Input
Amino acid sequence: MKVFAALVSSFLLLTSCSSSTPSVITGEVVSCEGISKVVSGDPKLECLDGGEGVAVSAIRGPALINVWGTWCAPCRKELPYLAKYFEESGDAVQLIGVAVEEKNAESVATFVEERGMTWPILFDRENSTRELFGMGVPVTWFINESGRVTHKHYGPFTSVKSIETAVSQYLGVK
Output
């Protein structure tokens, strides 16, 4: 009986440890009103909520601009880590998504809600950012207070810790 109790206890301890993937958060289409920006004459990307769009060149940080697509498997894999980081960091760093190569805004909005995204999403309806961001996704740009790109991270983040480390290193935010 003691052996059985020990096995049950060990099983419960092992299965109660947190997984490396953050839990799912319910998403929502968020207004772009809160994005720190300056007035810019550059073309604006649509805000997914239908509000005033934003020119990428006008964004002021500290901010992460995460370029992604609903069709992109690595993008989907990194989303829980971005969601958890954003939830834990509060307003220390803005997180702004840019949805690219999409059929329509409605399908992106549904994806956002289903995947736990709770940050502003810009929608590149005309694929105008391809030259700016390049062809591959995901890519995350680190933007400082003056709007300068301090780092470009190509590929998915694989943990909240990797995001925290990069934010500290490239934006000086702890």
